[in-house]
Design brief:
Layout: E1 3-7, E2 13-16, E3 20-21, E4 27-31, E5 39-47, E6 56-58, E7 68-70, E8 77-79, E9 84-89, H1 97-104, E10 106-108, E11 118-128, E12 139-141, E13 148-153, E14 157-159, E15 167-168, E16 172-173, E17 180-182, E18 186-187, E19 189-195, E20 202-208, E21 217-224, E22 227-228, E23 233-236, E24 240-244, E25 247-250, H2 255-263, E26 266-269, E27 279-285, E28 292-294, E29 298-299, E30 302-303
Parallel strand pairs: 2-13, 15-30
Antiparallel strand pairs: 1-4, 3-10, 5-9, 5-11, 6-19, 7-10, 8-9, 11-12, 11-13, 13-18, 14-17, 16-26, 19-20, 21-22, 21-25, 21-27, 23-26, 24-25, 27-28, 27-29
Length: 306
């Protein structure tokens, strides 16, 4: 009877200073020992030393605060002095207790000064407390191989605003044709170690920034007089979904998809001879961090072509 742990988490896991995430949802536990007594899961946070290419050593402002872990169901306890979370499953409970627990635990990243970041790793130990001979209870531990990179992220940058471009009633325009979107960047300091031949000590060279592959989404609201409306016309284009009167959403995978899809949108104005004042408000969100950029609404008045 054995306990095994399979680690299928993303490596590394990127998060923002002060944000809470589920960092262990990909970890599974296989326990062939019967749950005759309680089963204990222990997670210990530590400085990360393997989440960058090569033998790089993470830097963080203080060693005392690597973050905390909580169970949304109210179980377990986190000891800040040892950076350790422990929770025990009761006999007669879920036989998949350990996996279910890891899939719901929340890691709370500490708040960092601007421009700083660090890496943490979590060693997960699972113990079935049923005594098995002189070798003791079945137990398994991961290596420190669940790195979480915590840093300060910039919001998506959107420029310029929607052009103030008048259009004839019943005609179309591309209100976002000149739009530019800049991907968020992760500010993360770490050190690379250099050991000079013959030297008794290593030197550490500071390196700034860690590669960040952003995910994104965007919402667009068309208003007239401050109220969302379809009466002035409709937005159309690939990747666009309509979510309500005057509201739309785009959810591609990467920023370059988002930019091309937003630029390709067409607003078809209503074919009526009265003046319309459609106003477009664009919100771009980095879905990995929840950081958003909102463009101030800009009106593109329509006029009669007769």
């Amino acid at each position: 009877m054995t306990v095994t742990i399979a680690n299928a988490t993303s490596n590394p896991i990127l998060t923002t200073s002060g944000k809470s995430i589920n960092a262990y949802s990909g970890v599974t536990v296989s326990d062939t020992a019967s749950l005759t007594t309680s089963e204990t899961v222990t997670i210990t946070l530590a400085q990360s030393e393997s989440n960058n290419p090569g033998d790089n050593f993470s830097f963080y402002p203080t060693a005392a605060d690597l973050g905390t872990i909580t169970d949304p169901n109210g179980g377990g306890a986190f000891n800040p002095s040892t950076e350790t979370f422990t929770e025990t499953g009761l006999v007669g409970g879920d036989p998949n207790f350990a996996t279910a627990l890891l899939n719901r635990l929340v890691y709370h990243a500490p708040t960092l000064p601007a421009g700083q970041g660090f890496g943490t790793q979590a060693q997960i130990t699972v113990t079935d407390n049923a005594p098995i001979g002189i070798s003791g209870p079945p137990r398994a531990s991961t290596t420190f191989g669940d790195p979480v990179i915590v840093g300060v992220l910039s919001s998506p940058m959107v420029s310029p605003g929607v052009p103030d471009e008048p259009v004839a009633s019943g005609k179309s325009l591309s209100p976002f044709a000149t739009l530019a979107i800049t991907s968020p960047s992760l500010s993360y300091y770490y050190y690379t170690e250099t050991l000079t031949p013959g030297s008794q000590s290593s030197t550490y060279n500071s390196v700034l920034s860690y590669g960040y592959s952003a995910e994104d989404s965007a919402t667009i609201t068309v208003t007239d007089g401050g109220n969302p409306t379809d009466s002035d016309g409709l937005l159309t284009g690939p990747g666009l979904s309509k979510t309500g009167a005057g509201t739309y959403a785009i959810a591609p995978v990467y920023y370059y998809n988002l930019l091309s899809e937003i630029r390709a949108l067409t607003f078809q104005t209503a074919a009526i001879p009265t003046g319309l004042n459609p106003s477009f408000q664009l919100v771009v969100t980095d879905s990995s961090t929840g950081l958003t950029t909102t463009q101030a609404p800009t009106t593109s008045p329509s006029y009669s072509s007769h």
